[in-house]
Amino acid sequence: MKLSKIILENKKVVVRKQIDLTEEDIHSLTSSIAARLQEYLDIEDKKILETTVTAAITELLEKK
User: Which residue of 8, 16, 19, 41 pairs with 3 in a disulfide if CB–CB is 3.0 to 4.6 A?
Assistant: First the structure.
């Protein structure tokens, strides 16, 4: 999956970035974010948190 960002100013590209993520990268990122969020939020079920974070990451990656 790819996450791309292009910023235009006056019809000229000023920033172009792309991140390529594998499924393993997404899983690792999801686990890290969920663990950090669990410290701040009162959610006992880590599986629900991981599912939510995975859905958010996937949605961001699909909005190319």
Answer: 19
